From TrEMBL:
<dbReference type="Pfam" id="PF00534">
    <property type="entry name" value="Glycos_transf_1"/>
</dbReference>
<dbReference type="InterPro" id="IPR001296">
    <property type="entry name" value="Glyco_trans_1"/>
</dbReference>
<protein>
    <recommendedName>
        <fullName>D-inositol 3-phosphate glycosyltransferase</fullName>
    </recommendedName>
</protein>
<dbReference type="InterPro" id="IPR028098">
    <property type="entry name" value="Glyco_trans_4-like_N"/>
</dbReference>
<dbReference type="Pfam" id="PF13439">
    <property type="entry name" value="Glyco_transf_4"/>
</dbReference>
<dbReference type="InterPro" id="IPR050194">
    <property type="entry name" value="Glycosyltransferase_grp1"/>
</dbReference>
<feature type="domain" description="Glycosyl transferase family 1">
    <location>
        <begin position="222"/>
        <end position="375"/>
    </location>
</feature>
<feature type="domain" description="Glycosyltransferase subfamily 4-like N-terminal">
    <location>
        <begin position="34"/>
        <end position="213"/>
    </location>
</feature>
<keyword id="KW-0328">Glycosyltransferase</keyword>
<keyword id="KW-0808">Transferase</keyword>
Length: 417
């Protein structure tokens, strides 16, 4: 791949002593969208600016207004190339760039920016266009996958009989787009193996999305209530209904309350389910919240419940761990990388409300000493996912250097007294 050494010649990268890079991040979903992929792309962009690089982001416009302008994310200024987008009405917020214009738009942005490296965050539309056009221009390409086709099935309106065929086509398309990249990454080793299995790719790097742990503070005060928290999109694959059914199986004396933070197409259905189950007075749907309100929610909670079966990492779970919350999560996809039985929480059999209830009860009935051990376990395990390690690894990939995937099992940390 060509190294466009003239593209960002001003200054020196203070972290490496090398010249700063001009980076173009391509995303099908980006802030103000609220989901893990958009959150990661935003943190990646801001983190690279903070390290002295020039960062451009190409993503669908969040409204009918489109064009190029400056945006501030995480306190850092980036140049946003917002593409003309359409709303996908089966989904509650999704907007997508026009697929039949993506190559033309990619060529236009690439020729204007002249980046050293292109880093696309999914293969669907933006990544496809950027990878085709960047390859023509011999620009280094890095691809990251946050996507499972199964996550979007309920929004395609396809009949059940066609869905398996559609998933197969989606994985073939992913293989073609990621095949143009010099390096391919995904957040965990299990997710990397999953991507390799379905696309035929090899050598996929497992690089954690990372978490800015210093933005989340533990709450070591004694609990005054049993509050179970869920944070995320309120959609079918999150299996929030399993959590609500599990609540009905907890002993009444626990007086467990549930707080569901996030919005989505299933909110009204779940409100009706809570009413039908007789627990509506114990379940709060807060909708979307600010970052400060989210940190307050983590402080109020006794435990995070993550019943989702389609997490390629789960930034929410990492944020909860950085807040010293125990976690009860489905034993599915990448969640076992974060939740270790008996150390910082428990894994339950996916889609099984009885097992989820049993694991929640274990946390809520724990002695103060046992509960403190789980909280300390979350802090200890999340230390390996520091976002600075993630940024350093991607910087090396951007420069074409070989990398060793960061070990994210356990890292030592000094716990508070």
């Amino acid at each position: 791949m060509a190294d466009n050494t003239g593209a960002s010649s001003a200054g020196t990268d203070h972290t490496t002593g090398e010249r700063p890079l001009r980076i173009l991040i391509g995303a099908d979903t980006f802030a103000p969208d609220v989901n893990g992929a958009a959150r990661f792309a935003e943190r990646l962009a801001a983190g690279m600016v903070e390290r002295g690089h020039e960062v451009h982001v190409m993503a669908p416009a969040a409204s009918r207004k489109h064009g190029t302008w400056k945006e501030v994310h995480e306190g850092q200024e980036i140049t946003a190339h917002r593409l003309n987008s359409w709303r996908w009405y089966p989904h509650d917020w999704l907007r997508f760039a026009l697929p039949w214009r993506i190559k033309q738009n990619s060529a236009r942005v690439l020729d204007a920016v002249k980046p050293d490296v292109v880093h696309f965050q999914s293969h669907i539309i933006v990544g496809r266009g950027l990878s085709v056009e960047a390859q023509k221009r011999s620009i280094r390409i890095i691809g990251t996958n946050h996507f499972m086709p199964e996550n979007m099935l309920e929004f395609t309106l396809l009949p059940k009989g066609w869905q398996e065929w559609a998933v197969g086509l989606a994985w073939k398309a992913a293989g073609r787009t990621f095949g143009r990249a010099e390096s391919v990454t995904t957040p965990t080793r299990r997710a990397a193996q999953f991507l390799e299995k379905h696309t035929g790719l090899t050598g996929v790097h497992a690089i954690s999305c990372g978490v800015d742990a210093h933005k989340y503070s533990p709450n070591w005060a004694p609990r005054t209530e049993n509050r179970i928290l869920f944070v995320g999109r309120v959609t079918g694959e999150k299996q929030i209904d399993v959590l609500l059914r599990a609540i009905t199986l907890l002993p009444a004396e626990l007086d467990a309350k549930v707080e569901i933070v996030g919005g989505g197409d299933q909110k009204r259905n779940l409100e009706h389910l809570a009413h039908d189950l007789g627990i509506a007075d114990r379940v709060t749907f807060t909708g979307y919240v600010t970052d400060d309100e989210l940190r307050d929610a983590y402080h109020r909670a006794s435990v995070l419940a993550m019943p989702s079966i389609a997490e390629l990492q789960s930034i929410v779970t990492m944020e909860a761990m950085a807040s010293a919350l125990p976690v009860v999560a489905a034993n599915a996809m990448a969640l076992p990388h974060l939740v270790h039985d008996g150390e910082n929480g428990y894994l339950f059999e996916p889609s099984n409300p009885e097992d989820l209830a049993a694991k929640l009860r274990t946390v809520l009935e724990a002695t103060p000493e046992q509960y403190r051990t789980l909280k300390e376990g979350s802090i200890r395990l999340i230390a390996a996912h520091d976002i600075q390690r993630t940024l350093s690894t991607f910087e090396s990939l951007y420069r074409g250097k070989p990398v060793t995937d960061p070990v994210t099992d356990v890292a030592p940390v000094t716990l508070p007294e």
